[in-house]
């Protein structure tokens, strides 16, 4: 069984999301499933398993993803660039 989950239980608080997401992933793994879980919630990176992230290129220009999976949890945020692209805040 393969599972792909995007933004699991978004809309709930981080503590509840981590608890429920952990229970769901534990049950899927117990059933022999493999899969991927995507999230913007760093609390979920504490779940067991391999963490990878999609990299982006820096260069002072528009946000530019390189579409390469990189090991580990990202240490970067694109929030300021996204806000600038949306016309929010100082340019």
Q: Structural class of the helix and strand makeup?
A: alpha+beta
The profile of the biggest β sheet is: 2 strands, parallel
Radius of gyration: 16 Å
Mean model confidence by pLDDT: 78
The rounded distance between the terminal residues' Cα atoms is 47 Å
Fraction of residues in β-strands: 25-35%
Q: Work out the helicity level.
A: 25-40%
Large-scale geometry: globular
The number of helical elements comes to 2
- Low-pLDDT regions: none
Order of helices and strands: EHEEEH
Structure summary, number of beta strands: 4
Q: Total domains, how many?
A: 2
Strand order in the largest sheet: 1-2
A few lines on this structure:
With 91 residues, the protein is an alpha+beta fold.
Description:
A two-stranded parallel ribbon has the order 1-2. It folds into 2 domains: 1-49, no CATH class; 53-91, no CATH class. The protein contains 2 helices and 4 strands, in the order βαβββα. Strand 3 and strand 4 (64-71) form a beta hairpin. With 91 residues, the chain is an alpha+beta fold. It is globular and about 45 Å long. It is 26% helix and 26% strand.
Please specify the SSE layout and strand pairing.
Blueprint: E1 2-6, H1 14-30, E2 34-38, E3 52-57, E4 64-71, H2 79-85
Parallel strand pairs: 1-2
Antiparallel strand pairs: 3-4
What are the main properties of this structure?
single chain; 91 residues; alpha+beta; 2 domains; two-stranded parallel ribbon; two-stranded antiparallel sheet; 2 helices
């Amino acid at each position: 069984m393969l599972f792909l989950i995007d933004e699991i239980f978004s809309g709930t608080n981080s503590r509840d999301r981590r608890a429920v997401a952990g229970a769901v992933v534990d049950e899927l793994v117990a059933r022999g499933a493999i899969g991927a879980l995507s999230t913007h919630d760093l609390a979920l990176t504490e779940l067991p398993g391999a963490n990878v992230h999609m990299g982006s290129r820096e260069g002072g220009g528009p946000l530019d993803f390189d579409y390469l999976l990189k090991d580990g949890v990202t240490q970067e945020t694109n929030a300021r660039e996204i806000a600038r692209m949306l016309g929010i805040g100082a340019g």
